[in-house]
Amino acid sequence: MSLMKRSAVVAGMVAAFTLALAVPASAHVTVNPNTAVQGGYTKVTFRVPNESDDTNTVKLEVNLPAEAPFASVSLKPVAGWTMVAEKTKLATPIEAHGTQLTEAVSKITWTATGDAAIKPGQFQEFDVSLGPLPEVPQVVFKTLQTYSDGTVVRWIDEPTTDGTEPEKPAPVLKLTAGGTDSHAAASGPAATAAAPAETESDGNGTWAGVAGIALGLAALVIGLLAYRRAGSGAEKA
To answer: Poorest-confidence range of 76-80, 151-155, 212-216?
Structure first.
């Protein structure tokens, strides 16, 4: 094989290998940021990508866990989308600001109107303010994504015990123990300033992309060294 052909093969292998590792896993509905403080208030964003090549996302249903209800749920309007917060009676009343609450929001539904649907290659974000956050390790938001052809994708799989990602993972908000002033810690200026950095990525493929680039560069260096050795051998011959 000539030097030109060998170098072309090496370059092609490097490019294919790098792309294979750098491409993120299949995008799914996520909650951002994915961590908050128990007992405090926080604003979360449900990020919804459209995974279809030829249909639009027209509805999103987010279920709030009945076993860990929120006393306060506020929704931020999204242009072109209607929103409904459904409440259900609680088996055990909860207290908020000195008042006993017997019902809480159990499901939030956003429905697209007009041309607002999420089209192929696009995503939309839906903001919700929640609190006080329960004293549990995590909150799982089982979510249904409906497409214009009637297809419903059920993002309801809970986290696995072995750390592997399930096929249709539900958005998960991990909660950490707070201090004596957890409300201030979760909603004060420091938390507000940190929010943009936390919401930059939904975590899909970040480490895979870094690893792919690093390995791709290493393969490129090895290919160049092989090319130089082959060239030196040809000159001596």
So the answer is: 212-216
